[in-house]
Amino acid sequence: MEITNVSEYEAIAKEKLPKMVYDYYSSGAEDQWTLQENRNAFSRILFRPRILIDVSKIDMTTTVLGFKISMPIMIAPTAMQKMAHPEGEYATARAASAAGTIMVYKDRNVVAQLVRRAERAGFKAIALTVDSPRLGRREADIKNRFTLPPFLTLKNFEGLDLGTMEKTDDSGLASYVAGQIDRSLSWKDVKWLQTITSLPILVKGVLTAEDARLAVQAGAAGIIVSNHGARQLDYVPATIMALEEVVKAARGRAPVFLDGGVRRGTDVFKALALGASGIFIGKPVVFSLAAEGEAGVRKVLQMLRDEFELTMALSGCRSLKEITRNHIVTDWDHPRVAPRL
Question: Is 228 an annotated catalytic residue?
């Protein structure tokens, strides 16, 4: 079967992967309302295309933290990719240059060692996940008594005394995280992190204007609007619904990125029209990785690129800076008065 869009990889991954692994990647927290909403919210944003514009040349390039990239589509920090494919993160990294990611462990010495390791490995930024003082209630993982397959280890923590993920009566991951992740993490730790590294720090997991302002004050180099793939607190808004509030609060002092629910090039355009500097994809990466390895991830990136380019052309936009708020209409817009030409 020829794959013609990103979403088709999920069904293939479901067939190929063990149930415990597929459920780990695909499920959300509790009722999974936010999981559905991350997708559904995009469908409520409509286009206002402009016509009769010369779109023979389309430029999708952009700059993120000073690095020029070919398009505003990036790969989100996604854990345990070797459960999807034997080459795991290596295959994904070959399909796209990766950004570093850490969660803050109770032992600050461990955090410092992870940061040093990221610097030595040539990572260009650190994504600090801030929405997980505890792990969300993922009922599929509880039912499956999720634990790492025996052939896998948490490679990041090799040589660090962080214990192992044991089999438990619920989710082994939840029990492991409960023992390791620091629940007292606060904004002062974002500042502390800047004292031990010169790498730019992206704060991942912001959903409100209040926290966007605090992130800027704390010196964040960028903000990722994320609800952790709907895996933490259920009934938070879809990230595309939270995006504009965060962008307005950041007031251009730090770039804002979106993570969650992107499956189409049209979704990328909608995020940029609402003020995002770029988007991150997570689930499409692990599903395509499971289906076709590195080639699958490459194809996902290419399909999104092609769809995004087409959306730009059909909307009358030749570069990213030409994508404006006037190119879309949302539920929360006031009735429009046509601007005078």
Answer: yes
